[in-house]
Design a protein that fits this description.
With about 400 residues, this protein is an alpha/beta fold. About 35% of the residues lie in helices and about 20% in strands. It has 12 helices and 14 strands. The strands form 3 sheets. It has a 10-stranded mixed beta sheet, with helices on both faces. Strands 2-3 form a two-stranded antiparallel sheet. Strands 11-12 form a two-stranded antiparallel ribbon.
Length: about 400
């Protein structure tokens, strides 16, 4: 049973909805800038959504006390679900969300006072801390009383919600799965990645010989996955469906993938096998492509090892959005679906000195071409490697 992609919702540094993100991809307009909303001492470029928490609440009608990750999640999920919310009677619905920081922005705002004052009374901020709370708040905002679950597998988190959602539909557990994730910028993530010395002080340059690391970003994205019954009830003709998926773990290191790209290769091979496709059938690859030396080396080698007869147009969209951590898999899944919709491979901008050691280089121009099958890679800390394949319906 196929899991059709019936709609998408997204908010990122390059747009507050799907049409705005699509326009940015087509016009090569990135969203990397110095932080204006995040309170930080670091002058490091990020992919930031230029609305304060208060503005997000006022514009979208979200309770002001909710954490930023939850607000972004609600915005993207609402865009995806809006066309169907009053037309889904009798359908079995599930909501799968992913994130890595939860309500960290609220927790870190009061942690100093908490650690210094034995009589601290601001514990309410911590009730939003856990990752699962974002899922509960998103369901509440959508008005859904359904199965809700949270996944957190580092940077592959929301890719795994799409994988799990597709499996739940394939096994006839649900008719509809709203799958995706969100993550907001926080001091915790910026300081943590800075401590690892993998943040670029300029606009990131994945697969460039002059790369210095990644740019952290924030955002959220959701896909409405549905079986044929739901698609017929909604009277829509989906553009694409999830044809393949796999995850793997190379068990190599807490914050690095293996130099041989073992987990990367296993995930891509598994997705191809599950989809019943050969490497030559893939028309575009949305690379994980963070811009760290480790990622570029391991993913680059794994891609070369699999696509031995020629690498199709490939590139990373993190040069547009920054690395949005738990949201990255879903954001880039939306871009993969848009690639099929528009019959276009997105350009990897800001690539000046392409690294060619693996025998291939990323695509740097908007390429209008036949797109039937798109692979999207999400490779995270802890060896969590996931690959998705979307195919034209």
């Amino acid at each position: 049973m196929k899991a059709f992609v019936c709609n998408t919702g997204i908010i990122s540094a390059i747009g507050n909805n799907t049409p705005e993100n699509l326009d940015a991809l087509k016009t090569a307009r990135h969203g990397i800038s110095l932080p204006e909303i995040l309170p930080t001492r670091h002058s490091l470029p990020v992919g930031e959504i230029k609305y304060s928490n208060q503005e997000l609440s006022e514009i979208y009608g979200i309770p002001g006390e909710w954490p930023r990750t939850a607000k972004l999640s609600c915005i993207a999920a609402a865009e995806a679900w809006q066309p169907f919310k009053d037309r889904s009677e009798g359908l079995r619905i599930a909501l799968l969300t992913a994130n890595t920081v939860g309500g960290m922005d609220l927790s870190e705002a009061v942690f100093g006072a908490f650690s210094e004052d034995p009589g601290f009374s601001g514990f309410n901020a911590f009730r939003y801390h856990e990752c699962g709370v974002t899922s509960e708040l998103t369901a509440r905002y959508l008005g859904l009383d359904c199965f809700v679950s949270t996944l957190s597998t580092a940077c592959s988190s929301s890719a795994n919600t799409i994988m799990l959602g597709s499996r739940l539909i394939a096994n006839d557990r649900f008719d509809v799965v709203i799958a995706g994730g969100a993550d907001a910028l926080s001091k915790f993530t910026v300081n943590g990645f800075n401590a690892l010395m993998i943040l670029d002080k300029e606009h990131c340059r994945p697969y460039d010989t002059e790369r210095k690391g990644l740019n952290i970003g924030e955002g959220a994205a959701y896909l409405v996955l549905a079986n044929q019954k739901a698609a017929d009830q909604w009277q829509i003709q989906p553009t694409c469906f999830v044809s393949g998926y796999a995850n793997a773990n190379d068990a190599h290191h807490q914050t690095a993938t293996s130099p041989e790209g073992t987990g990367n290769r296993l995930a891509m091979q598994g997705a191809l096998q599950q989809a019943g496709l050969m490497p030559g059938d893939i028309h575009y690859i949305n690379l994980h492509g963070t811009g760290t030396v480790n990622n570029d080396a391991s993913e680059g080698k794994a891609v070369a090892d699999i696509f031995t007869t020629g690498v199709p147009p490939a590139g990373t969209t993190k040069v547009f959005t920054g690395h949005t951590l738990g949201a990255a898999g879903a954001i880039e899944a939306v871009y993969a679906c848009l690639s099929i919709q528009e019959q276009a491979a997105w350009p990897q901008i800001n690539l000046v000195h392409p690294e060619s050691g693996n025998g291939w280089t990323p695509n740097t121009t908007l390429l209008r071409t036949t797109i039937y099958h798109v692979m999207s890679n999400s490779f995270g800390f802890g060896g969590n490697c996931s690959s998705l394949i979307f195919s034209k319906a």
